[in-house]
């Protein structure tokens, strides 16, 4: 089952996640892709969404997949914020899930927010130059917060994101967990240290040179990280 990233990252990574699901399906696995409440084709508005609700969406999707396939075990694959939410759900449901793939997960919610704000504060001019602009607050009666690359990030959602700490979950992750990173990223060293000191089975963290399909602008938007997709499929099958 695949857990999407948030906002513009979901749009940019859509093609890659679709190809990943097709490859897994071709290998004989049942695959479920779904949208969180207020996102994509799901009901509701993103201004009404919250992270606990999205975690419940993942749990509902797991139950649906088990009901459809008759399987008692489910593997979760998450990208970015979807990876962090998948990790939280897997820890709470174990042994309801048997393996977990965290693809460039959000480690620290505060740092992730800073990335989102920085990405939204830089816009291209008519001449192709990038210039900074201040973030414009959203009206309090519409959830407050800010507009991030065309998606509302409410004040409530921002508060919840600030509380995310994947390193705190690391000792409790499933024994069969794979963390895959798109190239070397120093910020993941703390996670590697915790995983190395815990009872989580190897492999723990792998670095794969691949385009960051969820965030890179033109010409990489929509690009397929083939090596990453192949590695995830090989590990799960």
List keywords for this structure.
single chain, Rossmann fold, two-stranded antiparallel sheet, 8 helices, alpha/beta, 237 residues
Write the layout of secondary structure elements.
Layout: E1 2-3, H1 8-26, H2 51-69, E2 74-79, H3 81-93, E3 97-103, H4 109-120, E4 122-124, E5 130-132, E6 146-148, E7 151-153, H5 155-162, H6 166-169, E8 177-181, H7 189-197, E9 205-207, H8 226-236
Parallel strand pairs: 1-2, 2-3, 3-8, 8-9
Antiparallel strand pairs: 4-5, 6-7
Helix pairs in contact: 1-8, 2-3, 4-5
Report on the architecture of this protein.
With 237 residues, this protein is an alpha/beta fold. 40% of the residues lie in helices and 15% in strands. It has a 5-stranded parallel β-sheet, sandwiched between helices. Strand 2 (74-79), helix 3 (81-93) and strand 3 (97-103) form a beta-alpha-beta unit. The longest helix is centred in the first third of the chain and has 19 residues, at 8-26. The protein is globular, with a radius of gyration of 18 Å.
